[in-house]
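Margin note: ligand = T5A.
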Amino acid sequence: MFVVLEGIEGSGKTTLLGGLEEGLREDGHAVVVTREPGGSRIGEAIRELFLSHSVALEPLTEAFLVNAARAQHVAEVIRPALAAGRIVLCDRFVDSTLAYQGYGRGVDLHQLHAICEVATGGLEPDLVLVMDMPVSVASARLHGRLEMMDRIESENDGFHARVRQGFLALALTPRHRVLDATLPEKRLLDLALHEVRKQLSIEIS
Ligand code: T5A
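Resulting structure:
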C-alpha cells in the first residue's frame, strides 16, 4: 500500500511519519519511509539544488526538477517496495507539485498533471493524508529555525496560503483524508493510524 502525507511546511508531516512507521511496524508490517523531492541518490542531489538559496528557478524549472527526482524515486524505490509487499510511507508526492508549482506559483494545472503523469507512469497513492492548519500556526512552529529556512519556506505568507488552499482543493477525492494538524501529536497519530489500518483492511479483502 502506498500512503502519502501532504501539507504546508511545519504542519507536522515528518513527526507523524515517524509515529506511523513505528505503529505499523508494531502491527507486523514491513514499512519503507521515503520523501520527495529525494528518496534516491540523484533525488537527494536534486533536492539540495531545489531548496538552495543559491539558485533562482523559474516555476516550470521547479516542476521539471521535482519530477526528474520523482521519476527516479518511483522507479528505484517506490515501485520495487510495493512489488515486495511493503507499505510505502512517502513525505509529499504529486499533490505537492500541484499545490506549490500550480496553486502557489501559477503554473498551468493541466500541464503539471501531464508532467507528473509522465514521471509517475500513472502510479497513484492508495491514501493521502493531508495535514491542514493555518499558515500562521505553521510559521510559528518553524519560527525557531528562521536562519535555516530553505528557498521555498522563505516565501511569503500569501504564497503559503495559496498552497494550503491548493491542498484542500485537491483533497476532494475518496483517497484523501484531511486531518486537523493543530491537534496534539498523539491524537493525530491515532487518527492517522486508524485511517491507514482501515485502508489496509480494504486492500487485503
Ligand atoms: N516541494 C516539494 C515543491 O515545491 N514541489 C514538490 O513537488 C515537492 C515534492 C520540501 C519542500 O519542497 C517543496 C515543498 C517544501 O517546501 P520538506 O522538508 O519536505 O521540503 O517539507 P517541509 O514541509 O518543509 O518539512 P518540515 O520538516 O519543515 O515540516 P513538517 O515535516 O511538516 O513538520 P515537522 O514534523 O518537522 O514539525 C514541525 C515542528 O512542529 C512540531 C515539531 O516538533 C516541529 O518542531 N510539531 C508539532 N507541534 C505541536 N503539535 C503537533 N501535532 C506537532 N507536530 C509537529
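The chain has a mean pLDDT of 95.
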